[in-house]
Amino acid sequence: MENPKNAFYAQSGGVTAVINATACGVIQTARKHKTKIGKVYAGRNGIIGALTEDLIDTSKESDRDIQALMHTPSGAFGTCRYKLKSLEENRAQYERLIEVFAAHNIGYFFYNGGNDSMDTAHKVSQLSRKMGYPMACFGIPKTVDNDLVITDNCPGFGSVAKYVATSIREASYDVASMAETSTKVFIMEVMGRHAGWIAAAGGLAQEREGDGPHIILFPEVPFNQAEFVKKVKQAVNDHGFCSIVVSEGVRNKQGKFLSDVGTKDAFGHTQLGGVAPTIANIVKAKTGYKYHWAVADYLQRSARHIASKTDLGQAYAVGKAAVEMAIKGENAMMPTIVRKSNKPYRWTIGQAQLSRMANKEKMMPKSFITKDGFHITQKCRDYLQPLIKGECPPPYRNGLPHYVRLKNKPVKKILNTEFKI
Predict the structure, then answer these.
(1) pLDDT class for 2, splitting at 50, 70, 90?
(2) Are residues 135 and 44 in the same domain?
(3) Are residues 340 and 397 in the same domain?
(4) Cis peptide before 344 (omega within 30 of 0)
């Protein structure tokens, strides 16, 4: 491989409060190794930027603005939900990628995302081998869902966990103060299609008997309406109110999502329509209690003002590590987080082959869920607690967080052909 080759970096899927810290880690580390890596080109809107030759020249950004990515949420270069088909199904798509990479002297590929993104990175690494184009490919972990295998946890999760635990604690205090004459049940819906990690994080808010949340509904536990209603009534009877965290992916005994609206998203996943109002209607019909519900939605994954310091450090570290792996000559890998101990919490960076990561999901272990299926165990607390530790607020201006907006100057197109997505 000729030196220096340029690098392609892209963000994929849903963003997090700290994914830009990973971008910062990639770009800053690459800038320290200019004899190995020329420029870092970011794909505008993920892999779509590569297919359409819509690249961003990050060398046009100042060191100060790149550093400011550390405290800026969302995806600085745009992201996408776009799943590459197999080489056999759509060879033209892959030939286009190689055409664009070759035109811009790209020899390094860094794809920052979750399960589907690791699949994309794996396919691109296979593509480079099959088509004889020398390129080192790396997946960089990111997902609030915390469901990537092998890695102990996923950058992005610690911050959403901190937000959810904080929000349900504050809301529980609110409801407790009103319960005598007003609202007795509060329901907060959080993300988590198949794995209940985010919902589980809400359980950290409960430190003493009577604290909320009193009930957590996990995708891993089939929803039992009778047992649920019984639990709600018990909480109201014992504590005067009931606060609930429910994962969007909760299913009935037949395996159907309670909030299935009958459509699919861009990755082919079932589109979910909101489970909180469904649960609220059950509460109303079966108990008559006054209730309120809320959907955390994008708020939980964009809340940089309450990000976890641990999460921020890990997000930067995996970006830095991916570039260092590339410089060492490795390929088709993903940096992982390895937990060394809980008390004190110690972690380091490991690595795993992309072939072991793609399209696999890490579910909540049974040992993390109480026997009745409605809360978390001490073992789960021990796992979650270190991930939300530490505060790292962004700078404020005029009373609001001050975030950076990059120039995102495009790289001049070389190819004359257009590519339709």
Answers:
(1) low
(2) yes
(3) yes
(4) yes
Same domain, 163 and 242: yes
Q: Which domain holds residue 98?
A: 5-143+305-357+390-401
Query: What CATH number did the domain enclosing 127 receive?
Result: 3.40.50.450
Identify whether 145 is a catalytic site residue. yes
- Split into its structural domains, the chain has a count of 2
- Is pTM beyond 0.85? Reply is yes
Distance CA(7)–CA(337), nearest Å, equals 23
Q: Are residues 276 and 349 in the same domain?
A: no
Q: What is the pLDDT of residues 366-382, one digit of tens each?
A: 999 999 999 999 999 99
Specify whether 195 is located in the same domain as 210.
Answer: yes
Catalytic residue among 54, 57, 63, 145: 145
Would 375 be classed as within a structural domain?
no
pLDDT at site 32 = 97
Q: Are residues 262 and 297 in the same domain?
A: yes
Query: In this predicted model, what pLDDT tens digit does every residue of 25-84 receive, in sequence order?
Result: 999 999 999 999 999 999 999 999 999 999 999 999 999 999 999 999 999 999 998 888
